[in-house]
Amino acid sequence: MASKKIRRRDIIQQVVQERGGVSVGALAEMLGVSTQTVRRDIDLLCDGSNLRRAHGRIELAEDRLNTPFDQRAGTNLAGKRAIAEVAAAQIPDGATLFVSIGSTALSVARALRYRKELTVITNNLSAAMALSEEVSNRIILPGGELRLPDRDFIGEEVVEFFGRFRAEFAVFGTAGVGEDGLLLEFHQSEVRASERMRSNAQRAILVIDHSKFGRLAPAAGASISDVDQVVCDRPPTAVFETVVEGLGDKIVFAEKTV
């Protein structure tokens, strides 16, 4: 099988695992191929027991279906807590910060629960709710439609929203890191939102666990080397040794420091 087909089908599987289900049209737009091509991919992917077709969509099979965000939030808890503690330790009372979507960014928000007088600019509703427990904090959210079950806002309106603010810190995650060090997302709007946060913050902190290295997603963004700091739980596989070495002291492995 051609490598493009393998990569495309891997991405389809990952998107379905993330969201629980996705339409044929959305996949075609995301991957830049025809709906007929996506349907052929789905025919092959649904031969197993993990995925199923449903009214122009591909979904997780019933016995594997669960809330996608909660699945992610419930994995590698110790690693995410370690990442969150290292990242949160850099953010003082009274700081202004961007917080992105994603379960690791949410972990950082939870680790900031004892900070006071923060100004938090976020499209992550779960992070906003976690930080709202401290009434001295100021929390700013974009308008628009809330994406469920992830409980976040995405789209071009969010890119414009982040463009209206400046912050001392940006805490953000990514869907994956390519072997060339590029940060990968499932949507171009997510790439642009991350870029806007990074460029409008004095210090950009990428928070990711080691599983994101080598994880596929179709939309490519900035290089990981453009980030001010990377906080990861532990080193990735040897395939990424050159990428990690290139980061030097920009990358911190949290499980070694907490």
TrEMBL record:
Can you name one GO molecular function term for this protein? DNA binding
Q: Which residues form the HTH deoR-type domain?
A: 5-60
SUPFAM superfamilies the record matches:
NagB/RpiA/CoA transferase-like, Winged helix' DNA-binding domain
Extract the PROSITE patterns matched here: HTH_DEOR_1 (PS00894), HTH_DEOR_2 (PS51000)
A UniProt-annotated Pfam family: DeoRC
| Keywords for this protein | DNA-binding, Repressor, Transcription, Transcription regulation
Which InterPro entries does this entry report, sorted A to Z?
Carb_Metab_HTH_regulators, DeoR-like_C, DeoR_HTH, NagB/RpiA_transferase-like, Tscrpt_reg_HTH_DeoR_CS, WH-like_DNA-bd_sf, WH_DNA-bd_sf
Domain of life where this protein originates: Bacteria
What organism is this sequence from? Sulfitobacter sediminis
Signal peptide interval: none
Protein name (Swiss-Prot/TrEMBL): DeoR/GlpR family DNA-binding transcription regulator
